[in-house]
Amino acid sequence: MLKRRLKTEESTHVVTQARVSLIKQSEITEKSSFVLKGLSIFVGVICLLIALLLTDWQSLQGFYVVLLAFGAGAVLFRRFPASDVIAQSWKTAQIQSEVEQLEDPSELASDTDWQLREADDRHRSILDALGAIVIRCDSNGVVLSVNDAGKRNFPAGFGVEIGGAIHLPYADDFTPDLEEGAAGTTEDVALRTKHGTRWYSHLRLSIRDGSGGAPIIQWILTDVTDRRQAEQKLREDRDHAANASEAKSRFLAMVSHEIRTPLNGVLGMADLLHDTTTTAEQQNYINAIKASGSTLLMLIDEVLDYSKIEAGKLELETGNVELAPLVERVVELLSPKAHAKGLQIGSFINPAVPKTIQSDPARLQQILYNLVGNAIKFTEEGGVSLVLQVTTDTTGHHLLEFAVQDTGPGMDDVTAARIFREFEQGEYGRDRKFDGAGLGLAISKRLAELMESSLTVQSQLGCGSTFLLEMPVDEISEDFVKDHNDRIAIITSNQIEADLVYKTLSTSGYNHTKVLAADELEDLPLTIQFDRLLVGEEYVERIRNFYGQQSESAPEIFVLIKPQERARIADIKTGEFSGYLTRPVRRSSLLRVLSPSSLQTDVVDNDVTEEEVASTPQGQSTNLNVLVAEDNPINWMLVEALLGKLGHTSSLAEDGHKAVSLCASGSFDIVLMDLHMPGLDGLEAISKIRGREEKSASQVPIYVVSADVMPDAKEEALNAGADGFLSKPLKKQDLEAVLKRYAKG
Question: Is 537 exposed, middle or buried (0-12, 13-18, 19+ CB in 10 A)?
Answer without folding.
Answer: middle
